[in-house]
Amino acid sequence: MKKYDYIIIGSGPAANHLLFKLARTKKTALVIEKGFWGGTCPNTGCQPKIFMEGAVRPVLNTYYLSGKGVEKPAKLDWNALIKRKKLIWAEFRREERSSIENEQVDTVFGHGVITGPHTVEAAGQEYEGENIVIPTGLRPHRLEVPGSEYAITNDEFFDLDELPAKTVVIGGGYVALELATLMQAAGSEVTVLQHSDRLLRPFDQEYVEKLTQMMTDRGIQIKLNMPVEAIAKTAAGYEVTAENGQKFAAGLVVDASGRRANVDGLGLEKLGIKFDPIKGVAVNEHLQTNVPSIFAAGDVADNGQLNLTPVAWVDSYHIYDFVENGLEEGIKYPAVATSTFTYPQIAQVGKRESEMEDGDTVRRMKLGATFASLGEGDTNAELKVIFNQAGEVVGASEISINAGDDINLFAPLIGKKDPAKFAMNNLGFAFPTLANKLDVLFR
Ligand SMILES: Cc1cc2nc3c(=O)[nH]c(=O)nc-3n(C[C@H](O)[C@H](O)[C@H](O)COP(=O)(O)OP(=O)(O)OC[C@H]3O[C@@H](n4cnc5c(N)ncnc54)[C@H](O)[C@@H]3O)c2cc1C
Q1: Each residue's pLDDT tens digit, 325-376
Q2: Cα of 431 to ligand 1 centre, how many Å?
Q3: CB within 8 A of 229, min separation 6: which ones?
Q4: Residue 223's closest CA among 201, 207, 242?
Q5: How far is ligand 1, taken at its centre, from the CA of residue 356, in Å?
Q6: Where in the sequence of the chain do the CATH 3.30.390.30 domains occur?
Q7: Ligand 1 centroid to 49 CA: how many Å?
Q8: Cβ of residue 377 lying under 6 Å from some atom of ligand 1
Q9: Which of 339, 331, 439, 313 is nearest to 398 (CA)?
């Protein structure tokens, strides 16, 4: 039986960053992957999304600037964009597996099953590992309604050659609203069906309302409190029926109703490893399962963190530091910023206004009135920063077409007492860029 220092089941961001670290040692690893090498983020998540957003952004930018110095909105050619996407990804997918392999790291294609505290089976072979890491991620949670098989998920979305005239998106999280944004900008008539009365729960709800209004003004129909009861195939496409009897016809139905843990068939039950079928594998402060040689990392680790790529990176670095450097302190997450890549974007780091405690204060800045935002037609742009009683920055939220980038400025300011001074002394920004926002907000 071939022996490794680490057997890693899954090749996503949580695995990748552990491999970067291990590359600096003489440790050996086996990576087992049953899907696309590189995991969700580069194949069916963040990366194809941001690639598509790159083309959608000028379309929507010119939509808002139309008649204000720009003649008419740009038009998106979906088919050409997907063709280009497929070409780029074909190359990426050809190279990704070989970029993981080196003299220390072997790869196997197949479904990994843990057979013992130090053994894993994949593709008919058993392997031995001093440590086993489970970064198996999440997969789309399919609605449990008749006809759910007619809906596609993000797994298929980024390879759609044609976009029908009408689409229905089920869900109200960032994936649902981002995909709705892409499709509407490409000319499809989009309806979003959300089961509850709220969208984008982890984000500032005042900004979510602004975003919802702007999306609605662009023609996206957003229906709240609209749980779906069934999806049926019709001669013209599909019909989605809500629990209240309303019917929505569409040429394409996208199920973005949520994601669930990839824990099936991993052998967890046999070893008595604790897990939740939706949220994932129970871990301690070192991401160890109740079997000490077996760790879980990234989205599948059930420890209350947001399911995001930068969180997966932090996890894999911690496992390395714990196992290789004997780090005693439990995992500490920085204030991880997050953004919707809708148009405009809503970004967030630290506390939201709704989480303010006694003594906290909020400062707002109408970014939409700055020359930069006026120039971009981003007149609804706004920023709010939350301070605690001691005057330290404890959170920031922004709605603007650059919010996803801007928020990275506020992450290092979390916990800083005099942010203006800190920024001026430590962060030498070009002007007029983000510095504009800092200067006006904090001076
Ligand atoms: C549409 C979409 C957009 C997103 N956008 C963003 C974003 O903008 N920013 C952000 O930070 N995050 C984003 N995310 C989330 C991000 O993709 C995840 O947080 C990240 O990929 C988690 O990394 P991971 O390594 O934990 O898991 P994954 O990347 O999911 O990798 C897990 C891998 O394990 C494999 N696997 C599972 N079970 C087995 C098994 N038994 N045997 C072998 N292999 C197995 C899977 O095939 C998969 O390749 C997005 C996700 C989606 C779906």
Answers
A1: 999 999 999 999 999 999 999 999 999 999 999 999 999 999 999 888 999 9
A2: 36
A3: 145, 241, 242, 243
A4: 242
A5: 32
A6: 344-442
A7: 13
A8: no
A9: 339
Cβ–ligand 1 distance for 137 under 6 Å, the answer yes
- Does 308 sit in the ligand 1 pocket, CB within 6 Å? yes
Pocket of ligand 1 contains residue 38 by CB under 6 Å: no
- What CA–CA distance (Å, rounded) separates 225 from 272? 39
Smallest Cα–Cα separation from 81: which of 66, 59, 102, 98? 59
pTM of the predicted model over 0.85 = yes
CB 284 within 8 A of CB 315: no
Q: How confident is the model over 244-257, as a mean pLDDT?
A: 98
Place of tokens 């789309």: 140
CATH of domain 148-257: 3.50.50.60
CATH of domain 344-442: 3.30.390.30
What residue type is assigned to position 351 of the chain? K
Ligand 1: does its nearest atom lie under 6 Å from the Cβ of 39? yes
What superfamily does domain 3-140+260-325 belong to in CATH? FAD/NAD(P)-binding domain (3.50.50.60)
pLDDT digits (tens, 9 = 90+) for 189-207: 999 999 999 999 999 999 9
Residue position matching structure tokens 């959300």: 194
